[in-house]
Design a protein that fits this description.
Helices cover 30% and strands 24% of the residues. The protein is of the alpha+beta class. The chain has four domains: 120 residues, Alpha-Beta Complex (Topoisomerase II, domain 5); 83 residues, Gyrase A, domain 2 (2-Layer Sandwich), CATH 3.30.1360; 138 residues, Topoisomerase, domain 3 (Orthogonal Bundle); 326 residues, 6 Propeller (Neuraminidase), CATH 2.120.10. Strands 22, 23, 41, 42 and 44 form a five-stranded mixed beta sheet that branches. A four-stranded mixed beta sheet has the order 14-9-8-19. Strand 6 and strand 7 form a beta hairpin. It starts with a helix and ends in a 14-residue tail after the last strand. The relative contact order is 0.07. The C terminus is likely disordered.
Length: 899
């Protein structure tokens, strides 16, 4: 060793050197290979593949090229790793069972859900998918930063512009040194809704965001057990969830068969089958006879069809639970929302991921707008020169002809002065003002000089101008281009003047993306929590107002969102509504209640109230088809809140044609995903009322023309679910039933009409000694006699009122008695409900307004009357629904009057 070498030796602690070297290596792996960027959701290898394909112009409309070429260009130009590793990454971007929105459009053998490997890169071809072009859009408009590649020959983007939150839509999975990420895919339409919500309400809570994004939406479908794990992951960025295969039962030759159609995410069909066969061989599940794989090309590539044939004496429910316990038909995913934020790994919540994306898009749009503004101003400057030249064409031509060469012609044109009047005539008023602003920068209201010269760029453009551009049509095109450039410049300046304008553009982009790529959820989320934690125990019991629109949008709102108003008020907005989607149903229920949804096909579905989306008063809500698996074109016609399905009470259903059907409530206690048959409906008939009755109670059925009949529930015999029922009321021509209540003698019957008028009348105790001589239907009432009558604001004498307030019991199937006068002022009856003096009621109009009124403020009058104004209706609006708020659910702090 020489003396010079000895002088260069430094003493250091090997522990420090190892620590520093390891940390340097770890950060290199984290940043350069394993973790995605929160902005575009891509790892460097994935991003470089898309950029290389974009360089090759492999758009969705171009022809596909060999993946060998794509992999070679990627590794040769951008990615300093093996082409084989690049190809495997390319393959994953094309597999619809791994990506919720594939970024590569494939052709050839790219593997399968069975777990088979792809063909070699020389046999397969690919191009960019339509979704990938949305991520690369505007990349050449200075929207993102570029850095030199590993060999310094080219430059590559640090991040893609990405019009949609790819990190959430396609998720990411990777292991770095000391950390890992596992972000599941989500539904693009739901993610776009969440972005729009965050733009509209920057302070949106996790509950608000989960009203848009239900949870992960895996490309392979399946079922997520419970929402607690999802909520924790969205809140803290870390959690575990249980995912099950989608199964159903079939019968084959007297054998029960468990059919598996969708498997958990990241599992393979062959791997599951091998594990099932192993479980059977080991004797852990003895009731399985055979496992048959019937998957073929008739089903989508992300689905399977496995038949698990059971032995004759097997209990299929027990076997299915054993399969979930012992096989990959149920797996646990450890979610870990880790991504790079500013080149640093960070664990993120759902809201933070969305905020980072919105922040990225604002930057991209601002840079794109600045780029387009500069380009538009540059072109406008050139077009201004051409227009000025055309207005002074003789002097321009003479100057060019007298010049010895092209360079001298440009110099002489710059010294040519043009009068301001000619420039103003050539450019127009708006164009001339823009011209002055550029020629006099900084001046607020610049005064025009007598003459102006041409700039060097304008002179060069004039010298290069062809003679054909002097034709009249070409001059008009040039003028139209100038006007369009002025509009573009103004629009670009408007966008840059306020960030709210850029956010509005992002909001519109989300609508466009939903229209292009939005689809329904594949993954179902049920209420079955895996483990010892009961979801219901974690939900606070509180009273909710539930609304359901004509098009099937449902939401729940806290009851205290509506303060009580005086009778006759205008109400407050309760839902965003329009003429095409009015609110049809409104009711009050506890978060722990079951909601029974009755459809136009006579079926019934279940849903817990706390599983409905929680929204604001003016929110539209969420489509019910995303919560309840309705059949095509099936529509909800009525809803009922139920806490317990006991065996003593009966469920009574009433139809528009006056038919009633009674069935034991316990018959509906076992809900099925596809619903149960509740009633057999005649053609053209529909449900209008549902009630739960006990022994000895009466029912009261009301019609649109103001008739009502009260009869004992025992008059209708109990039937099975799939039956038609019996006649409840005889209806005149043109009349139809609108509502049914339990005739509680301690309560009043509140009847409301479509024009906002109504009344309450005591239901009363049945007097069995009274002869059945009271007149019933006396024919159609005479509107001319009462339509101009004043509101009945004063009660009649006690004796008169008492005699006119009786709903006497009749035999089922009678015509009933007059309940309210349906005059031109009142309109048809739309709803009835049984209420007490201490209750409050909620009313909703087709326009979406909701009013909460104290029952005590509504006058108690006789049956054969018009009633009083309860809610003041807007023009072309009408009352559509009514719900009772019982006394025990009224918040004393929420009854302040709101005029």
């Amino acid at each position: 060793m020489s003396t010079g070498d000895a002088e260069n030796i430094q003493q250091m602690d090997i522990r420090d050197e190892m620590r520093n070297s390891y940390l340097t290596y770890a950060m290199s792996v984290i940043v350069s290979r394993a973790l995605p960027d929160v902005r575009d959701g891509l790892k460097p290898s994935q991003r470089r593949i898309l950029v290389a394909m974009n360089d090759l112009n492999l758009g969705p409309s171009s022809g596909r090229v060999k993946c060998q070429k794509i992999s070679g260009d990627t590794s040769g130009n951008y990615h300093p790793h093996s082409g084989e590793g690049v190809y495997l990454t390319l393959v994953r971007l094309a597999q619809e069972w791994n990506m919720r929105q594939v970024l590569v459009d494939k052709q050839g053998n790219f593997g399968s859900l069975a777990g088979l490997p792809p063909a070699a890169a020389r046999y397969t071809e690919a191009r960019l998918s339509a979704a990938a072009t949305e991520m690369l859009d505007d990349i050449r408009r200075d929207t993102v930063d570029f850095v030199p590649t590993y060999d310094q020959r080219l430059t590559e983007p640090v991040v893609l512009p990405s019009r949609f939150p790819n990190l959430l839509v396609n998720g990411s999975n990777g292991i770095a040194v000391g950390m890992r990420t596992m972000i599941p895919p989500h539904n693009l339409a739901e993610v776009c809704d969440a972005v729009q919500l965050l733009i509209d309400e920057p302070n949106a809570t996790l509950d608000d965001l989960m009203g848009c994004i239900q949870g992960p939406d895996f490309p392979t479908g399946g079922i997520i057990c419970g929402q607690l794990g999802i909520r924790q992951a969205f809140k803290e960025g870390r959690s575990t969830i249980a995912v099950r295969a989608r199964t159903h039962f079939e019968q084959e030759k007297n054998h029960d068969v468990i059919v598996v159609t969708e498997i958990p995410y990241l599992q393979t069909r062959d791997g599951i089958r091998e594990k099932l066969e192993q479980v059977v061989r080991e004797g852990r599940i003895k009731e399985i006879s055979q496992i048959v794989d019937l998957t073929d090309r008739t089903i989508p590539a992300w689905q399977v069809r496995l038949h698990i044939i059971l032995k004759r004496d097997a209990d299929r429910e027990v076997v299915l639970n054993q399969l979930f316990q012992y096989s990959p038909l149920q797996t646990t995913l450890s979610l870990n929302f880790v991504a790079l934020v500013g080149s640093r790994p960070k664990q993120l919540s759902l809201k933070e991921i969305l905020e980072e994306f919105v922040r990225h898009r604002v930057t991209v749009l601002r840079r794109r707008t600045e780029f387009l503004l500069a380009e538009a101003k540059k072109r406008k400057h050139t077009v201004e020169g051409l227009l000025i030249a055309q207005i002074n064409i003789d002097n321009v031509i003479n100057t060019i002809r007298q010049s010895p060469d092209r360079k001298e012609a440009c110099v002489r044109l710059q010294s040519l002065e043009v009068a301001s009047e000619l420039i103003a005539r050539a450019l127009g008023d708006h164009g001339f003002q823009s011209f002055l602003a550029e020629r006099h920068p900084g001046a607020e209201a610049p005064a025009a000089l007598e003459n102006y010269g041409l700039t060097a760029k304008q002179a060069e453009a004039i010298v290069a101008m062809q003679l054909g551009s002097l034709a009249g049509l070409e001059r008009e095109k040039l003028g139209e281009e100038h006007r369009k450039l002025l509009e573009d410049v103004d629009e670009f300046l408007r966008l840059l003047s306020d960030e709210a304008h850029l956010l509005a553009v992002i909001r519109d982009e989300m609508d466009q993306l939903k229209g292009k790529f939005g689809d329904t959820r594949r993954t179902e989320i049920n209420d079955e929590e895996v483990g010892n934690v009961s979801k219901e125990e974690l939900i606070t019991e509180e009273t909710m107002v539930v609304t359901l629109s004509h098009r099937g949008y449902i939401k729940r709102i806290k009851l205290d969102s509506y303060q009580a108003q005086n009778r006759g008020g205008k109400g407050i907005m309760g839902a965003k509504s329009d003429d095409e989607d009015p609110i049809e149903h409104l009711f009050v229920a506890s978060t722990h209640d079951y909601l029974m949804f009755f459809t136009d096909r006579g079926k019934v579905y279940w849903q817990k109230v706390y599983d409905l989306p929680l929204g604001s008063r003016v929110a539209k809500g969420r489509a019910l088809v995303n919560l309840v698996r309705l059949e095509p074109d099936e529509k909800i016609f009525h809803c009922l809140a139920v806490r317990d399905f006991d065996g003593e009470r009966q469920l009574v259903l009433a139809t528009r044609n006056g038919i009633v059907k009674k069935t034991a409530l316990s018959a509906y206690s076992r809900p099925l995903r596809g619903g149960l048959i509740a009633v057999k409906l005649d053609e053209g008939d529909e449900l209008i009322g549902v009630a739960i009755v006990g022994p000895g109670e009466d029912l009261l059925l009301a019609s649109a023309n103001g008739m009502a009949i009260r009869f004992a529930q025992e008059d209708a015999r109990s039937m099975g679910r799939n039956t038609r029922g019996v006649k409840g009321i005889s209806l005149r021509e043109g009349d139809y039933a609108v509502g049914m209540v339990v005739a509680d003698p301690e309560l009043n019957l509140l009847t409301v009409c479509e024009n906002g008028f109504g009344k309450r009348t005591p239901i009363g105790v049945v007097d069995h000694d009274e002869p059945d001589t009271e007149d019933t239907d006396t024919g159609e009432s005479d509107p001319s006699a009462v339509e101009d009558a004043p509101e009945e604001t004063e009660a009649a004498s006690e004796e008169t009122v008492r005699s006119s307030m009786k709903y006497r019991r009749q035999k089922r199937g009678g015509k009933g008695v007059i309940d309210i006068r349906t005059t031109e002022r009142n309109g048809k009856v739309v709803a009835v409900t049984a209420i007490s003096e201490e209750d409050e009621v909620l009313m909703i109009t087709a326009g979406g307004k909701i009013q909460r009124v104290r029952v005590a403020d509504i006058s108690q009058v006789g049956r054969n009357t018009q009633g009083v104004r309860i809610i003041r209706m807007g023009k072309d609006d009408r009352l559509v629904s009514l719900a009772r708020v019982p006394q025990e659910e009224i918040d004393e702090d929420a009854v302040a009057e709101e005029e």
